[in-house]
Design a protein that fits this description.
- 2 copies of one chain form a homodimer.
- The radius of gyration of chain A is 21 Å and the shape is elongated.
- Chain A contains 12 helices and 12 strands.
- Chain A has helices at residues 12-22, 38-43, 57-62, 81-86, 99-114, 117-125, 128-132, 153-163, 188-194, 214-220, 237-246, 284-302, and strands spanning 4-7, 25-27, 46-49, 68-71, 90-92, 145-149, 168-172, 183-185, 197-200, 225-228, 251-254, 273-275.
- Chain A is an alpha/beta fold.
- Chain A has 2 domains: 4-97 and 284-302, Rossmann fold, CATH 3.40.50; 99-275, 3-Layer(aba) Sandwich (Rossmann fold).
- The first copy, chain A, has a 7-stranded parallel beta sheet with strand order 8-7-6-9-10-11-12. In chain A, strands 2-1-3-4-5 form a 5-stranded parallel beta sheet.
- At the A-B interface, helix 5, helix 6, helix 8 and helix 12 of A face helix 5, helix 6, helix 8 and helix 12 of B.
């Protein structure tokens, strides 16, 4: 009987890898666990998890012999890690391999917003370039003041790139980092006050919920642009929408949203927002690396070895 | 009688600066020179030039006492510099101040193309994200192999930025530069063979016409992406369109075109091309700096001082 349960929307390449190495039972989401018969559930020792639906006590109760939940992705806020730890269940994620992609997207989103590239493209394609001549002037990005909220692995990759754009780099993190050229802020409102571009690179979960609060958004000011590549939950989205609609801030560039993919339709009516469909890590190369790291964590557990990238 | 003739599509801020410092006669383009009466033409000592229409012997014949043509922009291919030199007319441009903006746009265009950001945005906004789930995977940019055609001021700014994306940097230039981590190619076909992304940062003019030839484009190959922020003339545009339509290369990201703004409509039918309306230097900050440098060159000439940024 198979020892592995693969839960989530895996693509064909990923399924091929999972089947080859782990011959798992596949489920579209955690809701399907309850439909498995008891013998199959009892045999499961490892879960390969992908997706944003909650995986917690209910599912763990149904899988009494599970010892590891290996998450596909660096953000494991869908998994109740506290509950897992109480039960002695190990959790792993896939850090490192996706940092570059997420940072690339963040930088491009920032420039797209500042330089109005999506609007300029549509304007040219509509024939207005030929009719009206020069596109309207927009806004210089290089040399600007940028704030990174959360200087973890991904935040650091973003900051390293933006340093090459000669930006004045500020950041919030719990502790000051060894980056003497960059300015640490212990308060996110102070950070937002100091910069024009604010990039959110926090981990998700309850600890960071609405960390980018109404007050932080207000502090960004009318020249301010918010970039979010973390989780929709980290931002007070209602306050953000209000600020975008009223012009209290200049714009936003967002790869993540509350209730994605069914995002708030108010976003679609705004022309000062760059919208991406949560594709920060969405490259062939990186997803293959993430899938491999997830499998390697499962294999390590089943082989009684240390997890490669443990969370708890 | 006024000594300065301002030719080109100046915006209100620029006109304000010109009027304040030089009280020029304004013309929309060089064709208008012939309509000025002889007394006015004879009084002109300096031309502040903006635009892409040719300014050469015909106009110089009509302005017998002109001593300087101060171009707005780093690319002065619209001005017949050889003809100016023969007549002892000085030419200046506005280098330096626009490098950052052009490099920012080039980097963002490259990532937009690789990560399909424009397509992903349209897909999300169309409601397909909510209906179909994850956007299709695309292509990792960081760590890739990039070639810069022309490692002048702007090419260098682009390369410096892409180095922060951990890219393997190759370049073509007439002479090898003191950049030991980067690979020099003395032949553009060799360069195109070595990379996936080719960024054209040449000066315009007859010397570089179709420098990115059919052979160079073919050498890029089916994974190849061409980025052009220089001039449409530097690329064999017919060969580029053929290669984009046939899939001989993967895509392009273009800020410049032949016959812009009336660009070849074949571009509009392609979904693997990022189109920008020649807005490389199009920010409020940079255009103000370019306008000031142009005026300062005219003022230097009228004050019998050395030009700040001479071309000939």
């Amino acid at each position: 009987m198979t020892h592995t349960l693969a839960i989530g929307p895996y693509n064909d390449d990923e399924k091929q890898g999972l089947t080859r190495e782990l011959s798992p039972i596949y489920l579209d989401g955690p809701a399907g666990v309850a439909d498995l018969d008891a013998a199959r559930r009892d045999a499961i020792k490892a879960v390969a998890y992908k997706g944003h639906h909650a995986f917690g006590a209910t599912e763990m109760d149904l899988l009494p012999n599970v010892g590891v939940v290996a998450n596909y992705g660096v953000g494991y806020d869908a998994i109740d890690v506290k509950e897992a730890s109480v039960r002695g269940i190990k959790v792993s994620n896939t850090p490192g391999v996706l940092n570059d992609d997420v940072a690339d997207l963040a930088v491009a989103m920032l420039i797209m917003q500042g330089r109005e590239m999506e609007h300029a493209s549509a304007w040219a394609r509509s024939g207005k370039w030929a009719e009206q001549g020069e596109y309207r002037l927009n806004r210089k990005v290089s040399g600007g003041r940028v704030g990174i909220v959360g200087l973890g692995r991904i935040g650091r990759e973003i900051a390293d790139r933006l340093a090459a754009f000669k930006m004045d780099i500020h950041y919030w993190s719990r502790s000051e980092k060894d980056t003497p050229d960059w300015t640490h802020h212990s308060d996110p409102v102070s950070l937002a006050n100091a910069v024009d571009y604010l990039i959110v690179a926090l981990v998700g979960g309850s600890d960071t919920e609405q960390f980018v609060s109404k007050e932080v958004i207000a502090a960004l000011g009318s020249r301010g642009v918010l970039v979010n590549i973390s989780r929709g939950s980290t931002v007070d989205e209602g306050a953000l929408l209000d600020a975008l609609e009223s012009g209290a801030i200049a714009g936003a560039a967002l790869d993540v949203f509350l209730n994605e993919p069914k995002i708030d339709p108010r976003f679609y009516a705004l022309d000062n927002v760059v919208i991406q469909p949560h594709q920060g890590s969405g490259t062939v190369e990186t997803r293959a690396a993430m899938a491999k790291l997830q499998r390697d964590n499962v294999l390590a557990f089943l082989g009684a070895k240390d997890l490669l990238t443990p969370v708890n």
